[in-house]
Amino acid sequence: MLGIYEGEKLIKSYESEEKADEFVPKILQILLKEFEFSRLIYANGPGSFMGIKISYVSLKTLSLVKNIPLFAVSAFELNGFKPISANKNLCFIYKNGEIVLEKNTPAKFFLPQNLQELNLKNDNLPFYFLDAVIG
Fold first, then answer.
1. Where along the chain do its domains lie?
2. How is domain 2-117 classified at the architecture level of CATH?
3. Helical (H) or strand (E) element with 88
4. Do you find a cis peptide bond into 46, omega within 30 degrees of 0?
5. Which end of the chain is more exposed for a tag (fewer CB within 10 A), N or C?
6. pLDDT of 60-112, one tens digit each?
7. Using 50, 70 and 90 to split pLDDT, how confident is the model at 132?
C-alpha cells in the first residue's frame, strides 16, 4: 500500500499484490514523474523482513538523493493495533506496550485519511522483531 497526501489528507492510494521488491521501485518511478514530495513516511515494522528492508532502502535512498525528510511509523498504527502476520503460523501482537508472537489471524492494513493521526518518528531505522534463536 502506498498513499499520496496533500495538506495532511489522503488524495490518492495504490495497492498491489506484488512483493515489495517488485512494487516499490515501479511505483516510485511513476510517482516521481507526477509528484514532488516534501516528506516520506513508511511503516518500519513489525512485518515482512523483506518488505521493510526494500521500503527502507528505496525511501532512504530517495530521501538522501532528493534531500527529503524520511519518517517512520509503527505498522500497528496502520491496522488499528491488531495482529500482523509474522509467518505462516504466527502473528505479531501488540499487548500492554510490548510485541509478542502468538497464533492469530492477521488484520488488514489501511491508509489513514489524515496524517495527523500518525505518531511519526524521526528514528526511521527498520524495526525487525526477531526472537532469539535457542539451540
1. 2-117
2. 2-Layer Sandwich (3.30)
3. none
4. yes
5. C
6. 999 999 999 999 999 999 999 999 999 888 999 999 989 999 999 999 999 99
7. very low
